[in-house]
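FW: tagging you since you asked about this chain on Friday. Here's the raw sequence from the shared folder, copied in full. Didn't touch anything.
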Amino acid sequence: MKNLFAAIADKFGKKPTFEVFGPQGGISINCTLPAGFNTATDRCPMVILMHGFVSSKRMPPIPYLASALSEAGIASISFDFDAHGRSEGEFVNMTISSEIADAQAVYDYVCALPYVSDIAFVGHSQGGVIAGMLAGRLESSERRPKCIAQLAPAAVLKDDALAGQCMGKKYDAKNPPEYVNVLFHKLGRKFILEAQGLQIYDESCKYSGKVCIIHGTKDKIVPLAYSEQYHKQYADSELHILDGEGHFMNGDKARIASIVTEFMKSNLL
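HL: got it, structure written out here
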């Protein structure tokens, strides 16, 4: 219920001003800096945090990861993908491509911040897919992400689209409708058709940096096999399987935060 209230506040709170823009308009961002950090004189690494499908930057695991990173001396920036949280756009027009473009826009914004040294990505669920694919596309860039972490990365979204299902809703995969009602959101035909042809692993595994993958044994949305496949294909990855943890990473928060922050400290500081 608390998460529902947060989502309602995101949508109907005071209209934000925007510094970053994606294909569907303004992207709502939130920057968390270490205590006492001076942006005029200090420098530190920045982690870009990416939430999941029908989630937001205000919902787990994003806030507690931002807090843990800050305590470890690492800055972070969280944001709402298009048509999520307080960002602009229509959900029916949201696709994996539009979310990758949003993440790219945030990455470009972070690259321009004078106080940022190295950059890393953390993505949960669909955000984990975005983090991996964007990292792969940035492999040859001058400021390639130093490392990435994926929490329950939802590569299953391609197989679900091919099977004609999403979060329990069924549809004709060969001829999808204009939209499918999923969790009070209109999932568009364009999303479905694009998802069916995505090369998720091929694109993600172009990234040669260090990768931390975390997945719970009680994840009922994304089977563990999808993280195991990521782990097999990456050049340099570690896989943490958390007994009893569900998809939303809202159980043993301290353990999850510790894995992520220790990984980031090892590779960024």
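FW: The first helix runs from residue 2 to 12.
HL: agreed, and The chain is about 35% helix and 25% strand.
FW: great, closing this out.
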